[in-house]
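Tokens for chain A. Residues wanted.
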């Protein structure tokens, strides 16, 4: 993996976590951290292990990646992180 590809995946994960956090009004720090981690995990599992490919495949720094798939899976992971953060906060 190249630095450009890692920059792309982490920026998509963090932006998705911010969108999910502010749209669900979840606890900020925990939601952003969980959202970014789960977004990265779903992008890896969906794109590389399950070979889910839809949308254009772009070569980013020597690594071919389906951009639309990464964005959709990152949003799903970020919203899961936001829901978990809200559940943890309510459980206290």
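Reply:
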């Amino acid at each position: 993996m190249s630095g450009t590809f890692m920059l792309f995946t982490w920026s998509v994960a963090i932006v998705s976590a911010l969108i999910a956090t502010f749209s669900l009004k979840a606890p900020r720090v925990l939601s952003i951290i969980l959202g970014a981690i789960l977004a990265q995990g779903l992008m890896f599992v969906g794109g590389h292990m399950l070979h889910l490919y839809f949308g254009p495949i772009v070569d980013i720094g020597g690594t071919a990646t389906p951009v639309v798939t990464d964005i959709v899976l990152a949003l799903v992971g970020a919203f899961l992180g936001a829901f978990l953060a809200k559940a943890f906060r309510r459980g206290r």
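The helical segments are 3-24, 28-49, 67-91. The two ends are 40 Å apart (CA to CA).
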